Amino acid sequence: MRLTDISVRALPLPTKGQKTHWDDTLQSFGCRVSQGGTKSFVVQHGAERRMITIGRYPIISLADARDEAKRLLAEMTLGKHRPRSVRWDEAKDLYLAACEEKNRKRTVDDYRRLLEKYFAFKRQQLVDIASDDIERKLQNIKAPAERNHALVAVKVFLGWCQKPPRRFIAHNPCEGMVPTKRNARKRILTDPELAAIYSTALEGTDTFSHIVAVDDQLEFSGKLHREIGFAQRIARRQRVARRQRNDLGAPGGEEWVVRD
Predict the structure, then answer these.
(1) What is the dihedral of CA 81, 85, 91, 97, to 10 degrees?
(2) Count: domains in the chain
(3) Residue 21, class by beta-carbon neighbours within 10 Å (0-12 exposed, 13-18 middle, 19+ buried)?
(4) Tens-digit pLDDT profile for the chain (260 aa)?
(5) Residues 94 and 54 in one domain
(6) 43 lies in the same domain as 108
(7) Of 107, 142, 162, which residue is a domain's last?
(8) Is the dihedral of CA 60, 63, 67, 73 positive or negative?
(9) 0.85 surpassed by pTM
(10) How many H-runs (helices) and E-runs (strands) does the chain carry?
(11) Residue 184 domain-assigned?
């Protein structure tokens, strides 16, 4: 079929998995549709029929995607674009090794935990992993905060894979993905609830648990400082009142009462 803006918008959703609709006007260029409704422009090249994801529709327009497909096909035909074939685990190990040279151990451990726990692509070729694959992994993470942390970790990792001199992938499949919006809390936690969270966070070994523990410490410290400040203000008022009583004397010998 000939891909147009109208036909792309009207592409039907497959009952399961993914289906690619190829463009009649540009060979090896098409639009892949997932059962969840995601539409991504792709280009296929070589005897191995390697698929490259250009970007998601409508973040990338049909015209821009077709131009990018022409550029990629020309470069690959001329031999200018030959990314090294790398498996997910190999790229992940290289990335974590690079992180160890410039990041703290706790940060690297958190990257490793998120990538290995939620994105177990293992020996799969990096270039074969598409946006839909990443999204399915993210959808399996129930906690919004953890899902957002995982998205940041995999997005940064794949961005590293895309940059020179590596260029393991032509495009980051996480392009256009945004963190999950979290609902504002409806009430303030009580002191016993904060204490329970703090106790649980202290037992955790990941970076997020340490952040929660420090945050709870600051929350408790803030409350304590506010209470101390209030007590200090009351004491100051009482000292001023006593000083005035000693200087002027209470009328009729009555005792002065200081009210908060």
Answers:
(1) -80
(2) 3
(3) middle
(4) 899 999 999 999 998 888 999 999 998 999 999 988 899 999 987 766 778 888 889 888 999 999 989 988 887 776 555 556 689 999 999 999 999 988 999 999 999 999 999 999 998 989 889 999 999 999 999 999 999 999 999 999 999 998 887 888 888 999 889 888 777 667 777 777 777 776 776 776 666 665 655 555 555 555 555 555 555 666 677 777 777 666 655 454 444 454 54
(5) no
(6) no
(7) 162
(8) positive
(9) no
(10) 8, 4
(11) no
DSSP letters spanning 136-199: HHHHT--SHHHHHHHHHHHHHHHHHHHSTTT---SS-TTTT--PPP-PPPSSPPPHHHHHHHHH
62 and 106 assigned to the same domain? no
Task: Quote the CA–CA distance of 24 and 33 in Å, as a whole number.
Answer: 17
**Tokens linked to 3:** 């891909």
Q: What is the residue range of 125's domain?
A: 88-162
